[in-house]
Amino acid sequence: MFSTAQTAVLRTRLDTGSESYRENVSAMAEMWDIVAAELATVPTVGGERYVDRHHRRGKLLVRERIELLVDPDSAFLELSPLAGWGTQDPVGVGVAVGIGLVAGVETMIIGSDMTYRGGSANPNTLDKVSRAYEIVRENRLPVVHLQESAGAELPRQADIFVRGGEQFRNITQLSKMGIPTITVAFGPNTAGGAYTPGMSDYTVFVAERGTAYLGGPPLVKMAIDEIVDEETLGGAEMHSTTSGLSDYLAADELDGLRHVRQIISHLQWKKLGPGPTVRADPPLYPAHELMGCASADVTKPFDMHEVIARLVDGSRFEAFKPLYGDKLVCGWASIHGFPVGILGNNGILFSEEAAKGAQFIQLCNRTDTPLLFLHNITGFMVGTAAEQGGIIRNGAKLINAVANSTVPHLNLMVGASYGAGNYGMGGKAYNPRFIFSWPNHRIAVMGPKQLAGVMDIVARNAAAGRGIEVDEEALTAQRNALEGQIEIESTALFATGRMWDDGIIHPSDSRTVLGLALSAVHSNVVQGATEYGVWRH
Question: How confident is the model at residue 118 (pLDDT cuts 50, 70, 90)?
Fold first, then answer.
């Protein structure tokens, strides 16, 4: 277990008066301003007209409900707030998701946004909620649904219906695992939306507001020619007194939130992880300097030690193999008192770095230590020397270790994450507990210029093989178009819009966000692997 007793303190070499530092800060701030502008649109995803209508009806917005639900002065870690960016769906995709303290318990909160098409779900809504359940399952967090749902967005039913039942399967499986689910019906819960309270362990219905029915009055009329009003069919009072679907009848929205806090209080919920075990003193260097530590332009290298020094407790870092494979920084530290093993890129991955990383991951698993991957990687080294030196063999060893590691993994994208380097650093395909990105982050199979250049060479070779001349003008246009396409598709906004991460964060908030994530993962058992797949030595 990591100890502070003999641990070296990182000494900064960052020149905050240098031109490069000032340029990084300025460029990073510009990128963050773009992200912040997008975030500012999310609370009113349906537009002011729908927000005003909601308030006129005496109803709270979803984020107002969340703010009243979580403990006063506590943090709320919103996840995937920009989901849907760059797609046909609105930013936020009509649902708010995040982790907050409720009655002292870290809880996943999933709230439908009635300002967006009556709280109906689109395909991206399903993906966002599915990711929330994944986090719940892996980290063992109680779930609160702040529910007001019109069901599926019917014109897009072909992309929703078949997989839409996954949500209900998730709720029931969580219940089987002993992870409680609580639903508050603030308004209509129609068709498939009615199964959320139906499957939950606890239900709260708000009087004269909450309803639940498989088919509303118009459908009942068409199906069986019965004329019935909403309250008789599926109102809060009916479900509380007659059907038994409602466990608690709340007088109003505030009373409904009070019931949730009361329910969570009586759960007597206990974390299974060891919790913070190390002195959680702040880093020696200010968090705002993270804005200039990493290169805003991911093609320019920077020293990952400078980032680590501003993330970890007391800037203490016990380096592992510092003189071997130095393009991969490995070592032990703690963040907000939680011990972590850190892997950070200081350049491309060579065979030595891959072998070093694999060993370090094994060691962290032996001591049940969570892993933090700090991404700024262009990939594994290529070329004759690299191939003959065993880059595939050692790269496979690193990926084997990552894939079979069972301690929690956290990813912080502080720069590029290209090619198989993303895999070796435990990217999304390797099921990390959380992934957060800085606004300068870029992710793709390779950089835009490199990818366009490779395709240019392929096209030229193909033309030569067919014995035809290259149309230079057409090839240049094709190369420029492809480079522009990949430039857009590599950005942090593009990635977060497709939920390849759990959100873009301000660099200065990184330590806080990582602390919240580490606290969440310790709600479950933290236990390392002792067995791995076969690898070549």
Answer: low
